[in-house]
From TrEMBL:
Gene3D superfamilies: NAD(P)-binding Rossmann-like Domain. The keyword Lipid biosynthesis applies. It is an enzyme of class 1 (oxidoreductase). Keywords: Fatty acid biosynthesis, Fatty acid metabolism, Lipid biosynthesis, Lipid metabolism, Oxidoreductase. Belongs to the short-chain dehydrogenases/reductases (SDR) family. FabI subfamily. It comes from Neolewinella lacunae. One of its GO terms (molecular function) is enoyl-[acyl-carrier-protein] reductase (NADH) activity. It comes from the Bacteria. It holds the Pfam family adh_short_C2. This is enoyl-[acyl-carrier-protein] reductase (NADH).
Amino acid sequence: MTPQLLAGKRGVIFGALDEQSIAWSIAEVCAAMGAKFTLTNAPVALRFGQLNTLAERLGATIIPADATSIGDMEKLFQQSEEILGGKIDFVLHAIGMSLNVRKKNEYTNLNHDWMLKTFDISAVSFHKMCQVLYKGDHMAEWGSILGLTYIAAQRTFPDYSEMAESKALLESFARSFGYHFAEKNKVRVNTISQSPTMTTAGQGVKGFDKFFGYADTMSPLGNAPALDCANYCATLFSDLTRYVTMQNLFHDGGFSSMGMNPKLIQE
Ligand SMILES: NC(=O)c1ccc[n+]([C@@H]2O[C@H](COP(=O)([O-])OP(=O)(O)OC[C@H]3O[C@@H](n4cnc5c(N)ncnc54)[C@H](O)[C@@H]3O)[C@@H](O)[C@H]2O)c1
């Protein structure tokens, strides 16, 4: 029997596109642990993704929202409170997109208009989301807000390109808003830095398959799967982690603490 760590909790989950999405696993785990939540994604993603299947299975309402639009997010959180019957206990931001990465532009030859769009979708959206939640007083006391990030925020992974700067910005927004939300009503704000994971966003990065294998060998526990990331997120949404805030938490099988793994030299 799955522990009912999230019984009675109300949430909003961004970013489930298809079965491979990390947010998809997170939604399944949160439902199994007793949470009620709304699901959201960009209107365009709802047309080609499979979110309906998940929503039907879990009995969750879908509310379309472009995370770069303050107006969309105001409606999203107002409607979520109405549907769920009270203030929100947890929010997952699992959003990332880079046109320069998609078009395989080299880091030394990026389109800067696209770069700004990347920052807006992948990082500024986190600030916008927090600001809408803060100003609208949507979060319950001791609530939890989480963003998903990647270690390229701290170290150079050349093919991750401008997503590295997006993640650095995202992590910084989480730290800064963590202060303001703690002061307001004890809400915590954290980011989880996840292993490479086979998803639509992940596989958009050049050479991802080879890199996935490299990270898997480098990490003493191997790459952390999406389902385990979901279990970790659930602990952070639960009351067991009430004093964890303003942190970037590595969920990566030990990758971030390794300098060299002899297995890589032997291969
Ligand atoms: N896959 C990996 O290797 C990996 C590793 C570490 C962190 N992450 C992060 O995990 C998060 C989820 O990504 P994923 O790997 O599950 O891939 P994914 O492609 O399944 O999810 C990305 C989501 O972002 C959504 N999105 C894009 N633009 C949006 C907008 N304007 N408004 C609202 N939503 C929008 C997409 O529709 C999609 O659902 C991202 O932040 C990603 O950077 C992924």
